[in-house]
Amino acid sequence: VIEPLAITDRPERPLPVGLEQVRHGGLAGVFVRPGERPPRASPDALWRHERFVEELMRDRAVLPLRYGTGLAGEQVLKAAMTERANEFEELLDLVRGRVELAVRVLDDGPRDRPAPESRSGRDYMESLARRRSRAERARATLEPLEGVALAARRRESSGDDLIRWAFLVERDAVERFRARLDELRASHPELRMTCTGPWPPYSFVSGGQ
Amino acid sequence: VSLSAQPRAALEREIALVDLVDRLLGEGVVIAGDITLSVADVDLVYVGLRALITSVGSAEAKGLLGQEVA
Fold first, then answer.
1. Which of A24, A129, A188, B19 has the fewest CB atoms inside 10 Å of its own CB, making it the most exposed?
2. CB–CB of B29 and A193 under 8 A?
3. Cα atoms in the 13 Å half-sphere on the side-chain side of A57
4. Within an 8 Å CB–CB cutoff, is residue B41 touching chain A?
5. Looking at the predicted complex, does its ipTM rise above 0.90?
6. Is any Cβ of chain A less than 8 angstroms from the Cβ of B39?
């Protein structure tokens, strides 16, 4: 069993220690052979995986793969690369030289939710409507960020955050993006935002699946 | 957990972990294979993260969130 990490270009580059690859044309399928234990969803295991992908990203374009998949062997990975070579090459062209930034707007809303015992259907619908309008305001406020990004993917969330937004940004535009975000923070102190990254372009390679 | 008592670096790492989990478990190119993560494993991570998001969302975090998270 192998655990695939990423599809990359530049298969001629030396790999970080601990990684192996199969090749198909100009593509490399990079994987690890996990030990006896299957990968666990512990923070340490997730960060170890992430460090490998980031290391690859230093000198090649990378399509990160979904975590937690085991393949019966490298021939399975190679077969997928052969079958989907065009798709992978197009995606690599899309993400080459670019990184992902993650922006999250946290919700102040829970405080205006009625206590469960006093909650009627009408209260509930009203609190949903207020939440939607807070999400819409946050979305409109963050729109200028799209001007610094090549692509954006937005998810409304049902959790304590209102919006999760992923931006695909040229590597050398990251500072500009953060400066723009700081301006928005300054002009909208009521919005609490987090920004993490740069990440490998996870949110821009999974389309259609 | 009082966030104001928590060092900023630790909070930032935890926010980054939430974003990492969203990406590793929900994004990325899918190649058909066997899922090697147990539902219990994933649930454990998410339970921890929900608690975290809730605490980050509390007013105490307000001063911390104005900063960039690397």
1. A129
2. no
3. 23
4. yes
5. no
6. no
Query: CA–CA separation, A182 vs A164, rounded Å?
Result: 17
Prior bond to A38 cis, omega within 30?
no
pTM: 0.83
**Where does residue A18 fall: left (phi above 0), alpha (psi -120 to 50 degrees), or beta otherwise?**
left
Peptide bond into A144 cis (omega under 30): no
CB contact at 8 A, A118 and A86: no
> Reduced to 3 states, what is the DSSP secondary structure of residue B11?
helix
- Tally of CB atoms within 10 A around A5: 26
Q: Which token pair is A47? A: 């960060």
**Closest partner residue to B41 among A41, A106, A203, by Cβ?**
A41
Q: What is the pLDDT of residues B4-21, one digit of tens each?
A: 555 667 777 778 888 898
Taking only the tens place, the pLDDT of each residue in A13-39 is: 999 999 999 999 999 999 998 876 666
Is the CB of A193 less than 8 angstroms away from the CB of B65?
A: yes
Contacts of A13 (CB under 8 A, 6+ apart): A59, A60
B27 with A159: Cβ contact below 8 A? no
> Is the confidence at residue A2, as pLDDT, over 70?
yes
Closest CA to A77 of A29, A38, A26: A29
